[in-house]
Each structure stands twice: as C-alpha cells, then as structure tokens.
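Protein in question quoted for reference:
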Amino acid sequence: MIERKKYLEQLISFKDKDLIKVITGIRRCGKSTLFDLYIDYLKEKGIEDEQIIRINLEDADYDFIKNYKDLYEYVKAKLISDKQNYVFLDEVQIVEDFQKACDSLYIKKNVDLYITGSNANLLSGELATLLSGRYVEIKMLPLSFEEYISYRGESDLQQKYVDYITKSSFPYTLNLENVKDIRAYLDGIYNTILIKDIATRKKISDISALDSVVRFMFDNIGNLCSSTKIANTMSSSGRNITVPTVESYLSALMEAFVLYKASRYDIKGKQRLSSGAKYYVSDIGLRYYLLGSKNADQGHILENIVYLELLRRGYEVYVGKVDNSEVDFIAINEKGEEYYQVAYTVMDEKVLGRELKSLENIKDHNPKYLLTMDFTPYTSYNGIKQINVLNWLLNKE
C-alpha cells in the first residue's frame, strides 16, 4: 500500500474530535485503503480490534442491511459500552436514509464515526441539513505525481510522467504492468461508474448518449465549454441531445467525481463569472483508455494535472479573466491568491511572450508562476517565476 500521507495526517488530526469524518472521491481512488492505513495507525496506538467496527456496504456479506435502521442496530450491537468505538462505513450512500443512522451513531459519546462515499450527493440535501457543522469532508483524488513517484522512483522523471498520464493514477494500476490488464481494469471502473454510480442513480436510460458526452468532455479538457456549445456540437455531428440533458449529464459526472469544473473568475472585479467554464478529468488515464492518444493535446493534459494538484493542495481553483486575456488558473486559499500559467514548452520566444502577457496584465503583487516541462535554470520575468512543472509537482521548486 502507498502511504497516502496527506490524507492520513488529516484523519489523524481529527481523531476523537466531535465530528463525523466524511471521505469523498471517485470510485477506486483509495478511500478504503485510507481506512486500512488509519486502522493500522489506531492499532499502533493501542486501540484493540474489538473497538474497531468496519462495514463495506458494497460487500455481499452485508446484504442483510436494507435500511438505516438495520445499519444502526447492527453497529449498535457491536459497540463496547466502556470504551471508545471507531466505526468505519464504506460506501454508506447505498443505504437508504443512511444519514439517520449516522446521526444516531454520532450523538453517542463513545463513537468516533468515519464514512466514505463515491458521490458528492453524500453531503447534500438532508445530510447537510441534519449534520450541519458536525462533519468534516476529506476530498480524495487518485495518486498525485509525487505519490506515484514515491512508488516508482525518481529516475527518468519524464518517462515516469508519460506512464503516470497514460497508465492511470488509480492506485491499483501500480500492480498492473501489462497495458492490456490496465485497460481491462479501467474498463471495469468506467463502466461501473457509468452504470452504477450515474445511470442507475439518475435513472438515465440512454447510456450511449451519456457515453458520448463523456467522450466529448474528455476530448475537450481545458477548453471553455457551455452546455449550449456541447449540445450544438454534438447535434451537428449526428448525436441529437438537448441542453437540459447535457446539463443533467455534466452534473451527474461531477457528482461522481469524474469531472471537475473550473468556473471563470474576473481578477480585476474579484468576482466569479456565470458564463463559460473549463472541465478537467479526475484521471488522465481514463481519457487515454477512452480516446487513445489521438488528438491528445499535451498542453491541456498538463493543465489538467496542475489543476488537480492545486485542488490537492487545498486551493479553490478558477480560470482567471483579466480584461480580454485569460490566465489558466487563479488559486485561492486563506493566504490569498496565486496565478498560474501552464504551457508544455516556451522555448519558442513567441510562445513565451504570449504566456507571459496574460500574467503581466495582472497588476497586483500576488505570486505569479509559469509552469512548463522545460528544464531550464531558475528564471524570473519581472517577478513571474518560471518553474519546471515536474519539480513543482514533486514540491522541489
């Protein structure tokens, strides 16, 4: 198992705190493995096996749990009255009205509750209302490049980057050297997400249309998109689909953590814009699985990797607009704002000038970065730092 250090540290910091720990993320990104790592930590700290109650609600062994009452009664019967109990519920959204069971367990003084889910709706609606202010969300993604390299080693970083994007960042693919086996594994993930997590949940009958939208979005990562543009483009190519249907599919794909949306942000006006957005995929390997290497825009793929890394580092991430130019990302956290321009290479002077211009149009003094694959000595252009993106991904900048 790869030690998911950042996520594990978050769980440890919330141990025994009066909060439900909610871990969300795309299917197979490592949520259950994080539980394994954390349970190992608890045992190292002297927690006994009988204090740990773990249930994977996708496991056929728990088919007898049909509703929240069954779940609550099953867990309640296993609680030790005079000790702290650590309760882990995997894929809890499978159980109808699961939030009622969570609330009932949460109010018990000797229960520390941890749950996972593969759908963003886990924290919407009734759960958010019922548990307002009483939970903390840990948002998981597949392996970062740094985590990938911690397993694969640092030699030949550029080839490792190619492997990272083509062979997938889903943790289990590290056990699969054969490309055919990796494709078979990704096929299983993709179809499970499409059928089980999206089509069944959203009652979508036209799987072919849903698949077409996914392929369109994967082929347009890093491009400004609107539902109208997507519907019109697909209709012109023979796939008639309405704007409301596109919006419904995009919403479902984001809820299943397949896609992430970066809205536009007016840097001068300091406000989020409602028109246009860019979409990024949670794992570039899924894109290669579906579309192959045909028309793979390496600049946009690199942009996708940077976007996900900024999310991992805890930023809110937007597409920046300044006058008539665009900055790839404005990253905002409690410390302020940072600006990022991403380009595969800027060895051509014209390309360098174009990439710098957008950042130069921003007149404030927040940090500005140009991330590229170029291995060049440390360079700064009027305060704009050019950094090799692989070093940045490895926190070596």
Summary: The chain has two domains: 5-139, 145-393. The first helix runs from residue 5 to 13.
